[in-house]
Every structure is written in C-alpha cells, then in structure tokens.
Design a protein that fits this description.
Strand content: 15-25%
Number of helices: 7
Structural class: alpha+beta
Strand order of the largest sheet: 3-4-5-8-7
Number of strands: 17
C-alpha cells in the first residue's frame, strides 16, 4: 500500500468522524418534548437518540441542572477576598540649603524665588593712597622712598603700603629739560631769554636731584594752602631728606626759582624768597644766564638725502640705515661690562634720542679717545639700528661707519 492509499484512507476516516459528530450534536441540542404537546410521547422519544433511552437523557439533564445550581450557589455564597493594599511610601524630600542672607537676596516672581547674587563687599576702586585724606591737611606728613627722578622738581615715590604716586615739589619751579613737551617761557626766570643756558641748568638740576634723592627715604609734607593735588593730578608736597628742605636747597644753589604767591600759593614759598634774592644777586646757577650772551644759532650741515634724523631712528629698529646728528654728549664707561664708549646725538643723556656704541675691543679701530674726538661734531653713523632700554642705537666696528660733516 503506497502513501497515496494511506492519505485517502485517513481523509475518509476524518469525513466519517465529522458526519457522526454532527448527528450527535443535533440530537443532543433538540428540545425535550413538552407534556402539553399533541400525540403520544412513547412514539416520539425512542427515535430521538440513536444510542440511549429517553430516561437516561432526562436524568443526565437533571444532573447537569443540579450541578449548575450548585456551582451558582457556591459562587454567590463564597466571599471574594479583599485585595491587600500596600501603602505607597511617601517620597523623602530632599532639602536644598537656603543661601545665606549675607551673600544673597531674593526677588519673588509669582510662585518661585529667583536668587539674585549680590557681592557682600563693594570692590575697591584704584584710588590714590589713603595716607593723605582731603581733610585735616595741617602738619600732615609721611615717609616715602624716591624711586624715580623725572626732573629737579618732579619725582615718583613708593609708600610703606606698596602704593606709588607722582610728587610735584611745592613752592619752587626748575627749568624744563630739553626736548620736553613744555618749554621755558622767557618771563618765568627773571626775563632770561637764553634758552640754551636754561637747558644747561635744567640738566644740572636734574643730575643734582638724582644724586640727592634717588632711592632715599624722604619725608613728604603737605600744605593746606596749596591743597593735595595739582593740575596734572600729582601729589603736592614739600620734600625733606635727612632733615633738609630739598626745595630750599634747589633755590639756594640756583637750580630752581620760587613760585610767586599769585601763581601757586604756599606757606614755605614765602620763606624761600630771601634765598632766591641771594642767588640772583650773586648770579648763582641759572641766574648766571642773565648776563651770558646768547650764542649764535648752530645751523646743521646738509646731511645725505637718504639719511634719517636721530629723533626718527626709533622707527627703523632692525633696519640698516644712516643716522645723522650732533654729538652733544659722550662717555667712556670704563667700569661697565665691555667698557663701551657712548656718543649721544642731539641731546645729552638721559634725554638723548640716539646713541653710537663703540666696545672696548673695537676702540683701536677708531681715532684715539673717540669720546673726545667726535664730541660736538656733526656725525652720521651707518649700521643696523638696535634697541637698548627703549633707546635706538648703532654698534659700530670701525671708523668707516662714521662720517663727520662740517
């Protein structure tokens, strides 16, 4: 028997089973005959079931009804168990630390608070030292150290608290240094019009102030008549060094004049006046310029067209150029490292705009004593312009780099 015969036999058996199953379902679902129906009950019931009697069917239905009733009674009589309620744990609040009231304040915005950060202390503005208040200036003084000398009557100081300030000497006025932004007016120094003479004494007064005050501890004394600050914001004070009034010393040596009380009033200015009269009568210091003849103007020669002036040399740092000017100041620094020779153009040290440098091991390549040989000569130096302490300079190797013009 092959597989096709087996398959057909299985299908036939399935069909027969389905047919008999439908007949049984139809017989069991038929309603029971009513006692009020017509006809004899004995003739209809035997044909209802193919395999059992009417009595068996009725008993089965009765048993099923009892079982259902019992189940219904059991369902209604039994109590449904109550669900066990598990309490939900309440969330633990996380506490946020309240900002300190000394460093924060709050601004309410409806239902929330917005912190507004405010500094506990106001920042200090960079003001002048508190050593000198604006009130109670009488006999007020303090110690300070001179850290820089600008000219005979102007300095930079440092106080014990580390703060610095510019100080303008009270009661006196020295001549302005050459090439400064301000110039000396003829009427300021007793009608002296010889500016070159005043320039000379301005430089001497500057050197005297450096020797006397630089890096020295001094006593600064204010004057309630003059006030605390001047026109340019500088501290106005008398300066005493080792118990000596430096303003009076400048007047005595002829390095400064006394301010008239109508210009800038001060108490000590009145005491300085006799010293000025004495220096003026004896033609001491700048007062010697009254009778000194005015020199004829020194006209410079015509320099090469491609050359640059000493004042313009600072714009050509790192370049090869020819710089021309007059050697007005020179110095052979034997004790310095390398023993250099300096030739300063147009203005003396420290206001010189340009310098020629000759090192000791190259001095033999130049005329003897080059610091004297080139002094007061109009000179052109050719070489690479360098910067040393913010000053332009040319280091020369031999005299071929220097040309004198008359």
């Amino acid at each position: 028997m092959n597989r096709y015969t087996i398959i057909i036999s299985v299908i036939a058996l399935v069909v027969i089973a389905v047919i008999f199953g439908n007949v049984s379902c139809t017989s069991s679902s038929a309603p029971s005959p009513s006692p009020y129906s017509l006809g004899s009950s004995s003739s209809s019931f035997p044909s209802y079931s193919a395999s059992g009697s009417a009595t068996a069917i009725s008993q089965k239905e009765s048993n099923q009804s009892k079982l259902k009733s019992k189940q219904r009674a059991t369902y209604t009589s039994s109590k449904r168990p109550k669900a066990t309620v598990i309490p939900t744990p309440s969330p633990i609040p996380t506490s946020t630390p309240r900002p300190k009231t000394d460093s924060m304040s709050f601004t309410n915005q409806k239902d929330k608070e917005t912190p507004v950060v405010r500094p506990t202390k106001q920042p200090k503005s960079p003001t002048q030292p508190k050593i000198f208040p604006t009130a109670s200036l009488k006999n007020l003084s303090t110690l300070a150290t001179i850290t820089y000398v600008t000219d005979a009557d102007t300095f930079k100081v440092q106080f014990s608290n580390g703060q610095s300030d510019d100080v303008r000497l009270l009661g006196v006025d020295g001549p302005e240094l050459p090439n400064f932004s301000s110039t000396n007016k003829p009427g300021e120094f007793g009608g002296i019009i010889n500016e070159s003479c005043l320039d000379k004494w301005a430089l001497k007064g500057h050197s005297f102030a450096i020797e006397s005050l630089y890096n020295q501890s001094v006593n600064l004394i204010l004057d309630e008549t003059a006030g605390t600050r001047g026109t340019y914001g500088r501290l106005l004070a008398y300066v005493e060094v080792n118990g000596i009034d430096f303003g009076q010393l400048l007047v005595e040596k002829g390095y400064a004049r006394v301010y008239a009380q109508t210009e800038y009033p001060s108490k000590r200015g009145i005491d300085y006046q006799p010293w000025q009269d004495w220096a003026k009568e004896n033609e001491i210091g700048l007062w010697s310029c009254i009778n000194e003849p005015i020199p004829e103007p020194d006209l410079p020669p015509v320099f090469p067209e491609a050359s640059i002036s000493a004042d313009a040399a600072g714009y050509y740092i790192g370049q090869w150029a020819t710089v021309c000017g007059k050697v007005v100041d020179s110095n052979y620094a034997r004790s310095s490292n390398g023993s250099p020779t300096f030739l300063n153009f147009d203005r003396p040290y420290p206001t010189h705009p340009f310098t020629v440098v000759i090192w000791r091991d190259r001095r033999s390549n130049f005329p003897a004593n080059p610091e004297n040989y080139y002094l007061n000569e109009y000179l052109c130096a050719t070489g690479k312009i360098e910067s040393y302490k913010r000053k332009p300079q040319i280091v020369v190797e031999n005299q071929n780099q220097l040309t004198i013009y008359n």
